[in-house]
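hey m, so remember when u said the tokens were messed up on ur end? i reran from scratch. heres the input so u can diff it against urs
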Amino acid sequence: MKKTVYTKAGEVGLVEVERPQIEAPDDVILRIVRSCVCGSDLWSYRNPDIEKGHQNSGHEAIGIVEEIGEGITTVKPGDFIIAPFTHGCGECDACRAGYDGTCDRHVGNNWSDGVQAEYMRFEYANWSLVKIPGQPSDYTEGMLKSLLTLADVMPTGYHAPRVADVKPGDKVVVIGDGAVGQCAVIAAKMRGASQIVLMSRHEDRQKMALESGATAVVAERGQEGIAKVREILGGGADAALECVGTEVAVDQALGVLHNGGRMGFVGVPHYNNRALGSTFAQNITVAGGAASVTTYDKQILLKAVLDGDINPGRVFTSSYKLEDIDQAYKDMDERKTIKAMIVID
């Protein structure tokens, strides 16, 4: 089968490898129908020290169950499923509290990897896989795009306002205009925010967010951006949703909040040991981490997509064949596309 690997900094390619096999009772082998490139994949893609042949970090897919381990009772061969990037057990304290993204039982081994391929072995599959009614052929390409977002970016976008406790009437600021930020706009609207300000410098992303429910856009950064947000909202925000993963983005999020505000952060951190002491005088609530993908899909998001209430698939602005995976990465890296979908025959 074909599988994506890093070949050098700024380049990925395909290699031929053996198809994965069942190794544990709760394994499932999936034939991948659609995958994609995530903004977090670009951190390794840009790494000048990346080793040739290094496992690619793609982690989002929808596909067909090909084979199941003897302990699997929830899916069967032929089922069409969402393969979340997280692998919760559904039974531990974290999962039962709705935090399956950081399952207590699968610490350090809870994320998918190597999903930009024709097949994958999905570990800890019994609870975490999410069944989609019917087969891929029953859906339009637009609907397949939205279903694919449910493997990561839409649940991640939803996680930010959930942990920030966004309530009806709240004033919300979204930091980051990529796919996760776009989905955070959708999620904030779902949770009843009265005003949603997106901080973005890119016209195409601004337009998309406004179509999804944002009420204003701020292009400025730093103190100038904070002042502009506060002017629009008539004061600080009730909640700030950090969807980037940099210290600058965290500073921006903290800066737009009024005292007693709440920050939800879902950008994978690329900073070290940022001190929380600076929030003490503001009484800021800070929460975040890996999204509860399976929980949100089963309880809220899959139905919202199937009913047509939300259209997160619009974040896929370009599609590529698996053979064109390097171009998909390049276009993401150069901001020619918001999110690149990989179509696998």
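this time it looks ok to me. The chain has a mean pLDDT of 95. if urs says something different then somethings off w ur setup not the seq
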